[in-house]
Amino acid sequence: MPNNIILSVIVPIYNAENTLNDCLSSVLNNNIEIILINDGSTDKTEKICMEYCKKNKLIRYYYQDNKGPGAARNYGIDLAKGEYILFLDSDDMIDRNILLSILNNELRQSPDILYYNFEQVSQNGKLIRIHKLDAFSNMSKRDLIINTLSWSLPWGQFKIVKSVLLKKNQIYFDEERRDCEELFFTIRCLEFANKIEFTEKILYKYIKRYESLSNTININDMLKSRLKLIANLKKKFYEKYKEGVNNFAFVSYVQIYKLQSEKKQIGIKDYKLKKILEQKINEYLKMVDISYCEKRYQIIYHFFKYKLSSVIYLLFKLRRSLYRLTK
Q: What is the rounded CA–CA span in Å between residue 326 and residue 73?
């Protein structure tokens, strides 16, 4: 394996036999290292990975017992030999030609972090939205972190990070956290970075999966998890990024409120939870700096501000019902 590897692409994988071929085909390149971390898959994932390893010596395959995507990414960080690291989810894709252009241009400027634009695409390939992260390019580091906390600047795989930044500062994903584990990782990256750059190039294709979370998770457990997370954020970051922490809490409660509205059947406990969430949202109306939040949350903010929570609840429910009818 050559010593002058510019980029390591880390792919955490769990039961991805249906999407893995498209994912790996999109990233094949003779100049980059691809690290495949099988996180305890029980399908044909391993077989597919081994087939790709035979094709390219720069593809490296590792197996671990199921520990979650954070642990898989951390394993990849320790193994990476590239000057830079990019995380690629096993059901997403990248544009190979754009990646080559970034390797030959933007990364030659030696940024600590490079954010790129990305497409959000439906499962049938229809373009939903282009996320233009370069709109954040002229902001201070503090504003970038507040926008990250406010759910405006995405946390996850939409950036390339210098490997030495992670390893020197011991920046890893929290393996105990399964909710928002990428948030703390991203904030630490931003805090330690000296040179943060943005490109207008659309590198990443994020595939939007429509399985309803409201039918697969316990919403009460999610609320407990977010309450704990918000308390942790207040402890770590409230003094420095007060606006961002308050915005995170507001958006979190709105997201859970939306999930709760999508449930097919609503009982007495659900009604009580709805009231608790409305109380939490109304509490944060006085504390948020809504200018940092995405337009959709700004609109929802005004619905609650003018006592129209029942309207937004109904709109959430109708939106999900319409999707079920057109699925």
A: 36
Whether 70 and 139 have beta carbons less than 8 Å apart is answered as no
pLDDT in tens, 87-117: 999 999 999 999 999 999 999 999 999 999 9
Q: Which residue has the tokens 């939409």?
A: 158
> Which residue ranges form the domains of the chain, and what is each CATH number?
7-208 (3.90.550.10), 213-326 (no CATH)
| Whole-prediction pTM | 0.92
Residues in the chain: 327
Q: Is 176 left (phi over 0), alpha (psi -120 to 50) or beta?
A: alpha
Alpha-carbon distance of 47 to 63, in angstroms, equals 12
pLDDT single digits (tens) 262-277: 876 667 778 899 999 9
Q: In terms of DSSP H, where are the helices of the chain?
A: 20-27, 45-55, 69-79, 96-104, 141-149, 163-168, 181-192, 219-237, 242-261, 268-285, 295-305, 309-326
Output the pLDDT for position 230. Answer: 97
Alpha-carbon span 188 to 304, nearest angstrom: 33
Tell me how far apart the alpha carbons of residues 210 and 121 are, in angstroms, rounded to a whole number. Answer: 11
Q: Are 70 and 177 in contact (CB under 8 A)?
A: yes
